[in-house]
Design a protein that fits this description.
Layout: H1 18-23, H2 28-36, H3 39-49, H4 61-70, E1 77-82, H5 91-98, H6 100-114, E2 118-124, H7 128-143, E3 159-165, H8 174-181, E4 205-209, H9 210-222, H10 224-228, E5 238-243, E6 251-256, H11 261-268
Parallel strand pairs: 1-2, 1-4, 2-3
Antiparallel strand pairs: 5-6
Helix pairs in contact: 2-6, 2-9, 3-4, 3-6, 5-7, 6-9
């Protein structure tokens, strides 16, 4: 009853073994981007897919990537916002715990597209298992030449580091998050300027959340048209929802965008115990 895109590897890979992710076509999208596409073609694919940021604002990912790529700077950065603080929400946590390499691959593709060599994942400290599995995944990918210096023996270098939040809910806001990464007090700042222009250390910075990056490998591997065919014309793809409370089946649900809330509650979650 679901449409698995970002969660397509759920139950299929061992998050502690990179070999299982590779066996599930992992890192093929990164290889294709590096050796078969230019950075501009990668951005064009993301744009054509219609992918929007899954962090809440729904800003077109392709527009954001293109803005970061064209803004001048000595360095550029890619940041993954994994500071998931909303009550009852565990979408990002589940992706990081079950399929961490998918997020790393999406970030590396983004780094190649926008011209960044450094990425950061900002994870809330209340997610110790997600942090542990990310640390393991980063080490494994580095040992196999899939992250770090000369990715796939190419001229592309991309390093990913983890930054752990200290429990401040406000650090889920992008400007506060970046201040925290830089060792400053995590307080929001007025915009403009936007992170795509002046982000980390005043350099162009691409900032998306976990679910957004998790969609990237599939778009590059299968082509943007497949992703664009799911959901609605203005908001293609799927969305992962957390279903909690008084329903028959709680947990994660991934459905095409445009799916009525009643369908999620009644069909996917089995309805409420009293039928209300």
């Amino acid at each position: 009853l679901q449409t698995s895109v970002g969660l397509e590897n759920a139950g299929r890979v061992d998050p502690g073994r990179i070999e299982t992710y590779i066996a599930a076509n992992g890192y093929r999208a990164l290889y294709r981007a590096l050796f078969e596409m230019t950075p501009a073609e990668v951005i064009e694919a993301i744009t054509r897919s219609g992918l929007r940021g899954r962090g809440g604002a729904g800003y077109p990912a392709g527009v954001k990537w293109a803005t970061v790529a064209k803004n001048p700077g000595e360095r550029r950065f890619v940041v993954c916002n994994a500071d998931e603080g909303d009550p009852g929400a565990f979408m990002n946590r589940s992706v990081l715990e079950s399929d961490p390499h998918r997020v790393l691959e999406g970030m590396a593709i983004a780094g190649y597209a926008v011209g960044a060599q450094q990425g950061y994942i900002y994870v809330r400290g209340e997610y110790p298992l997600a942090i542990k599995r990310l640390e393991t995944a980063i080490k494994q990918a580095g040992r196999m030449g899939l992250l770090g210096t000369g990715v796939f023996s190419s001229p592309f270098d991309f390093r990913i580091d983890i930054r752990i939040g200290a429990g401040a809910f406000v650090c889920g806001e992008e400007t506060a998050l970046m201040s925290s990464i830089m060792g400053e007090r995590g307080t929001p700042k007025p915009r403009p300027p936007y992170p795509a222009q002046h982000g980390l250390w005043d350099m162009p910075t691409l900032l998306n959340n976990v679910e957004t990056f998790a969609n990237v490998p599939g778009i590059i591997r299968h082509g943007p048209e497949r992703f664009a065919s799911i959901g609605t014309p203005k908001s293609p793809g799927t969305k992962v929802f957390c279903v909690t409370g008084q329903v028959a089946r709680t947990g994660l649900v991934e459905v095409p965008l445009g799916t009525p809330l009643g369908t999620i509650v009644e069909d996917k979650a089995g309805g409420t115990p009293d039928g209300g």
